[in-house]
Amino acid sequence: MNPEELLNESNERNKPAADSPLISLERDLKYFSESIKEVAEEIMNEGLSSYPIFVAHQHELSLGELILDKNDLNSEWSIHASTLEEFVERDVIKPVLKERFVKSFKDPYQYMCVFVVVPEGANFVYFPYVK
Q1: Any residues with CB less than 8 A from the CB of 12 and at least 6 apart, and which?
Q2: Where on the phi/psi map is residue 121: left (φ > 0), alpha (ψ -120 to 50), or beta?
C-alpha cells in the first residue's frame, strides 16, 4: 500500500504532500530503524512471535508495549511493539483473516510491519530497515 492511499490523499490532490503526517513517520522510522529491528529480532529470538508488529501513532493508544515515546525522544511518533497474536487476541485482526495476514507478511528481518494509526483510520505498511 502506498502512503498516499493510507490517507486517501488521492482524493485531495490540491493538498501539498508536506502536510501528510506520513512524511514525519518516514523520517522517524528511518531514524529509529536499528532500534526497531533489534526489538523485532528479540521478539522472534525469544519465541514470543514470528510476526512482530509495530504500532505508530501520535495520540494515546493502548496496543502493544511502548518502545519509543515521542515525548521522551522529541520525535513526532510513538512506537509500540506488538505481535500478530496480540492483534488477533484484541480483535484488531479477525481470526478468520489471520492466515491471509500471515501469507502476506514480509520478511521480518528485512521489513518492519507497521500498523499506522492516524485520525483518518489505520492500516498496515511494510517499511524496509535502513541498511
Answers
A1: none
A2: left
- Could you tell me how many residues make up the chain? 131
Amino acid in the structure at residue 7: L
CA 49, distance to chain mean position in Å, is: 16
Q: From first to last of its 131 residues, what are the pLDDT tens digits of the chain?
A: 444 444 444 444 444 444 677 888 999 999 999 999 999 999 999 999 999 999 999 988 889 999 999 988 888 899 999 999 999 999 999 999 999 999 999 999 999 999 999 888 899 999 999 88
Phi, psi dihedral angles at 69 (to 5 degrees): -95, 120
C-alpha grid cell, residue 3: 502512503
pTM score over 0.85 = no
Contact 106, 127 (CB under 8 A): no
